[in-house]
């Protein structure tokens, strides 16, 4: 099977360089990184912090000059290049790395073109952008997990209660609802897995794929675990694991089932 070609477009005005390694790792899971670019304003302090990082990871700088104070044309440059990539061909997967909801329309356009769109950003990202992607990787949660040996419980954000009528705009206007990414609680994930499983052993990879269909961009690292195996191991009161050596004699196939009482 031919390896998929990946383009990574980073909003340097919006994303910290501390995530560079994780951005590359996540993009490489989808195939060969063919295009790896960072966009930003040449005078932006956040972009300047990328200067030492870009050569290390092979990131091409696409720096722009802002002709008006407070306005950046870097976002426009990123959007234009994304459209060029769509029509130029040769790319199967596009990774859009930003927490800026202004890119939501671009995300929908990329997805409509038939390309696989992987979004990456922080928890503060507007949910509309995250939902526009085929997958969305929460970089600050991945960063926390990779940085710590022992998993920490990540508590899902509660949805804010509806406010009184003063939050509504004048009659006839659209209500601007802005929600950051909401992550289902760990207990909700456990319940979904239990509903997915029968009494027999199931391939853990298949269970993970089923979760992805129900929860766009599900990732065990969002809950403080390095992978699904660790997630299941740390919930041994609910699940059992079994390991079998694959045909190549090198890798292991992991199976899971409900805990037998």
In short:
With 261 residues, the protein is an alpha/beta fold.
Question: What does this protein structure show overall?
Answer:
The protein has 261 residues and is α/β, with parallel strands linked by helices. It has ten helices and nine strands. The chain has helices spanning 20-28, 45-48, 53-57, 74-88, 104-112, 127-132, 139-147, 186-196, 204-214, 228-233; strands at residues 5-11, 32-41, 60-64, 93-97, 116-121, 135-138, 202-203, 239-245, 252-258. The chain has a six-stranded parallel beta sheet, with helices on both faces. The longest helix is centred in the N-terminal third of the chain and has 15 residues, at 74-88. 31% of the residues are buried.
Provide the structure class. alpha/beta
Radius of gyration: 21 Å
Number of strands: 9
Strand order of the largest sheet: 3-2-1-4-5-6
The arrangement of helices and strands along the chain is: EHEHHEHEHEHEHHEHHEE
Give the mean pLDDT. Answer: 81
Shape from CA axes? Answer: elongated
Number of helices: 10
Q: Compute the separation of the termini in Å.
A: 43 Å
Helix content: 25-40%
* Low-pLDDT ranges: 149-178
In terms of DSSP E residues, the strand content is 15-25%
Which sheet architecture does the biggest sheet show? 6 strands, parallel
How would you describe the oligomerization state of the chains in this entry? single chain
């Amino acid at each position: 099977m031919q390896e998929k070609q990946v383009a990574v477009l980073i909003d340097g005005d919006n994303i910290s360089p501390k995530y560079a390694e994780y951005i590359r790792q996540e993009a490489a899971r989808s195939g060969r990184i063919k295009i790896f670019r960072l966009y930003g304003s040449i005078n932006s302090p956040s972009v300047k912090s990328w200067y030492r990082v870009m050569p290390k990871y092979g990131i091409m700088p696409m720096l722009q000059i802002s002709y008006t104070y407070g306005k950046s044309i870097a976002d426009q440059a990123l959007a234009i290049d994304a459209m060029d990539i769509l029509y130029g061909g040769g790319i199967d997967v596009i990774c859009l790395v930003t927490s800026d909801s202004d890119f939501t329309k671009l995300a929908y356009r990329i997805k409509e073109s038939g390309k696989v769109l992987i979004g990456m950003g922080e928890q503060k990202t507007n949910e509309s952008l995250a939902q526009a992607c085929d997958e969305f990787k929460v970089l600050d949660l991945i960063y926390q997990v990779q940085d710590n040996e022992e998993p920490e419980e990540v508590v899902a954000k509660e949805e804010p209660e509806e406010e009184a009528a003063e939050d509504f705009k004048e009659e006839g206007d659209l209500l601007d609802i802005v929600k950051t990414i909401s992550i289902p609680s760990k207990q909700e994930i456990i319940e979904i897995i239990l509903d997915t499983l029968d009494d027999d052993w199931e391939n853990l990879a298949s269970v993970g794929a089923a979760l992805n269909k129900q929860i766009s961009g599900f990732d065990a690292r969002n809950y403080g675990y390095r992978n699904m195996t660790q997630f299941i191991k740390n919930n041994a009161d609910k699940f059992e694991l079994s390991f079998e050596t694959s045909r190549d004699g090198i890798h292991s196939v992991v199976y899971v089932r409900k805990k037998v009482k």
